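Milestone M4 deliverable, item 7.
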Amino acid sequence: MYLAPDGEEAEIATAASDFLVGAMPIDRLHVAGSADMSAELRALFGEMGWFALAVPEAMGGSGLSAVEHTLFFREAGRQCGPIDLLAQSLAANVAQDAGLRAALIAGEVAVGLLVADGTQFRLLGSSDAAWGLTVTEGQAALYPLASIAPAALPSLDPANSMRLLGALPEPAHQVTGSHISQLGQLGAAAMLVGMAECALDLIVEYAKVRETFGRKIGSWQAVRHPCADMAVRVEAARSQLWYAAAAMKEGRADAAAHLDAAKHLANQAALANADSNIQLHGGIGVTDEHHAHLLLKHALLLSRLFGGKRSLLTRLLHAELED
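Output delivered:
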């Protein structure tokens, strides 16, 4: 890929879309208890090899690049894929034991994402998560959770359940460097871009059929212009996402700066488009039966993971780019 997916890359995106629409459609989130991945669904993802996309062949993975990783998670974002989908993929790159890595790739064991909350940690992911993953800019670690009973917390986002842990045990596996955090940031940005695209698609389709005063609402400037703004945000975020993925694949020295820019634009696009989608749908946009609120709630969570506004802009302020 140079500036847009082509060839085999486009085929992977199509295959991911077809699989996710069938296995994890966004409609599932209107049913209680649908947060996270079930053991059966996790095994299905493992069987298809989706957790192993960015795992090197020497470690039992597919040996593909950051580009394919991005393409998959963009499609996952369009279906409001849960956080543990990304955590599982990252954990497969962290595990040092071949047996554990194979079990993670196959989806035989579950991983949740650990996020620091003061002196405690919030665990995002399935209730049967046997491992917790922490990711910082310079290090990623896997913690065994078998002996810990986290307390359940209410979650705003229907796509993810949440629990609270106190002190963590010693990590069983650690890797240093920025590779895992960059894969996480790229995956989160891709999911956010997918959500921004989904929000745009929803309102464009609605504007073609909803009528007011005898005209389709898409004919009114008050709808057309916000839709155009949504399209511009999507195009900017998606273009930067492709460039960041290609920069990481090619090992550019300024890849980290492009990743920060991609995550910042993805945050903006997903949040603004999800909000505009609700507003332009009118009364139906705030009903529980509609997809609109699912996108906004998921975007609010993902926009705070792997780089929030303040940290991203601080790093971008001092970034140096190659010619």
